[in-house]
């Protein structure tokens, strides 16, 4: 169970090869976390991530999990919770897609939506129910500033994150008072393999910076975390810009 500083002893990562998630796992293992479950599609990358965490002193295990196969989520995640309490679940899977291509290939756009939103709804509800049955735990959801307002450049991805963000907010309200804490993390542009080759946005950040923000947010029992924090004010302003003007902004 979490100690007074909010550091979990056990961690389940949905999206076990996510750079942000693994940076978070490294920080938490360096503090107190001892058991880490990496859920993802079986691959050398997933096994390599688990081996790296073992080298750092964690009891790292893998479990087969496919965000697109919602019907398998109950069984896959049930196996993890059957092994013992999980103090923290980090929902970190998602795909960026290719906006230009996806606009012309609707099924590719649907895949983005099903991965980022539908899969997250399924996995999120299953984990929330298990955490509630324990009577404690944190569910940390990696959202994005892209979900704050749809932009021409990435409205397919942004809309999927908007849905995820709204879902996580509602879930947090539903679980209030149960002992389960839901925290939404809204990073800006993160320098990672997923964004390699893309033009870097202002106030870009790193997986390590997001990991630090997650750790701090857990300690403070925050409900929403912006990375970097200045994005909160920026997005608050952009949210109210009239649409005709917003279309002309280089955002």
From TrEMBL:
Gene Ontology molecular function: oxidoreductase activity
The record, for InterPro entries, names: NAD(P)-bd_dom_sf (IPR036291), Sc_DH/Rdtase_CS (IPR020904), SDR_fam (IPR002347)
- Swiss-Prot/TrEMBL keywords: Oxidoreductase
| SUPFAM superfamilies recorded | NAD(P)-binding Rossmann-fold domains (SSF51735)
EC top class named in words: oxidoreductase
Coiled coil regions, renumbered to chain: none
Entry EC number(s): 1.1.1.333
In the UniProt record, does the keyword Oxidoreductase occur? yes
For this chain, the family text in UniProt reads:
Belongs to the short-chain dehydrogenases/reductases (SDR) family.
UniProt cross-references to PANTHER family, sorted A to Z: 5-KETO-D-GLUCONATE 5-REDUCTASE, DECAPRENYLPHOSPHORYL-2-KETO-BETA-D-ERYTHRO-PENTOSE REDUCTASE
Provide the protein name. Answer: Decaprenylphospho-beta-D-erythro-pentofuranosid-2-ulose 2-reductase
């Amino acid at each position: 169970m979490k100690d007074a500083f909010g550091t979990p002893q056990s961690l389940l990562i949905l999206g076990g090869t996510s750079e942000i998630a693994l940076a978070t796992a490294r920080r938490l293992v360096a503090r107190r976390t001892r058991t880490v479950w990496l859920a993802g599609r079986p691959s050398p990358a997933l096994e390599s991530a688990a081996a790296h965490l073992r080298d750092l002193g964690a009891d790292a295990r893998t479990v087969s999990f496919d965000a697109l196969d919602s019907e398998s989520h109950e069984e896959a995640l049930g196996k993890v919770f059957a092994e013992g309490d999980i103090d923290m679940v980090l929902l970190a899977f998602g795909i960026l897609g290719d906006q230009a291509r996806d606009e012309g290939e609707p099924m590719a756009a649907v895949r983005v939506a099903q991965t980022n939103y539908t899969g997250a709804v399924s996995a999120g509800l299953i984990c929330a129910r298990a955490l509630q049955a324990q009577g404690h735990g944190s569910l940390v959801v990696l959202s994005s500033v892209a979900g704050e307002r749809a932009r021409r450049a990435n409205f397919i991805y942004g809309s999927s994150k908007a849905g995820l963000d709204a879902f996580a907010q509602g879930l947090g309200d539903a679980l209030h008072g149960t002992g389960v804490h839901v925290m939404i993390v809204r990073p800006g542009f993160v320098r990672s393999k997923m964004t390699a080759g893309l033009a870097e946005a202002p106030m870009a950040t790193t997986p390590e910076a997001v990991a630090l923000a997650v750790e701090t947010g857990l300690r403070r029992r925050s409900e929403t975390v912006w990375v970097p924090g200045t994005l909160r004010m920026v997005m608050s302003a952009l949210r109210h810009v009239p649409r005709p003007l917003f279309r002309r902004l280089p955002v």
